[in-house]
Amino acid sequence: xxxxxxAEGATSLCVNEHGGAVGMPQLCGEWMPNQIFWLLVTLVVxxxxxxxxxxxxxxxxxxxxxxxxxxxLAAAEELxxxxxxxxxxxxxALASARTEAAKIVAxxxxxxxxxxxxxxxxxxxxxxxxxxxxxxxxxxxxxxxAAAVAEVARDVAGEIVAALGGxxxxxxxxxxxTARLKG
Amino acid sequence: xxxxxxAAEGLQIHPMDQFVVKPLFGDGPIEFYTFTNVTxxxxxxxLAVLALMVLSTSRRAIVPSRSQSVAEVFYGxxxxxxxxxxGHEGLKxxxxxxxxxxxxxxxxxxxxxxxxxxxxxxxxxxxxxxAMVFLTVTLVGLYRKGFGFLGMFWVSSAPMxxxxxxxxxxxxxxxxxxxxxxxRLGGNLMAGHAVIKVFAGFAGVMGVASxxxxxxxxxxxxxxxxxxxxxxxxxxxxxxxxLRDAVGDAxx
Lengths: 183, 252
Description:
The complex is a heterodimer of chains A (183) and B (252).
Chain A: H1 32-163, H2 170-182
Helix pairs in contact in A: 1-2
Chain B: E1 4-6, E2 11-13, H1 37-55, H2 66-86, H3 94-110, H4 123-145, H5 163-205, H6 211-247
Antiparallel strand pairs in B: 1-2
Helix pairs in contact in B: 1-3, 2-3, 2-6, 3-6, 4-5, 4-6, 5-6
């Protein structure tokens, strides 16, 4: 610091001829107007810059951020509510679907039962008709069989008589067989 | 005090030369408007304020960049200090307090750059800052509270016989405030810078052993960083404390 150019003459009481400090530079009265003037200029400039530009801007940024965070939290809360509602709706739908399915199953069962009953009734009718018809046929066959038995007996009796050497006429055989069959 | 001369060894230490105010151009007499190293370093402080508080916030980002975060931290720190200490009414003075803080803090920090000039180590500067605070508090207090402002000196909770004595002490302490307010800041800065310079002078003549003073300078530099920040903080919070007398309901 003391290597500055030699001050010309003793123009200042605060620096020696080598530009060094004499006493405390802080107490040098002849510099104070300069320091105070520039300090006031500096403070005014900083004040204007801060008060007119920087501080309102930073305040707005902080307020914006606070608003954004609040909004985001509210939105998150709303989405959570929606998720809960959606889950509830899903559960409700599931439950009603189960009930509906049970109802459909019951209806189908009733339908099937009805069809089954109708088919059973129809089958019963058919079966009884067939049974009646069969009984009739069986009766006819039995009658036929009885007639055939008489005829076979007569023929066999005639043949047996002939084989034993007797000469039996057809009428006598007939009468005998008929008498036996009745007996 | 200016020079410590060890004439025999020719050891010349000029710890106070760093505080000399010099014209930037030529070496004529220093008028109040002369561009001096004071002008230069105050101008740099203004540029630092612009860079830190205006440039860094120009994007107005919701998610801040690093520099914008720093600006927001300064804003939040001082805003909360004014709100807490000076009271809610004191927020009207927030730009004013912020101006004081930014100027003192940045000037203290800039003064730690080697070869720089510390504007806040000068009593003329700190005295003006303190006088501004004193005048603001006194005028605002008288304007807002009128005669009631003087009730601050009349300690109504003390016994009647002690009140005149206490009033005298309160008045004296009130008028000593700007003195302590300014000398605390200027003295701290000046002392630290002068000590660093003295050690640097030792380092210049001690040869290999100069590692010792250089290590000491490093340690003191760290301490001075702390002092620079803490003194800016102290100056600002005292300003808020004084402002509460003017705008808040002062309870002592």
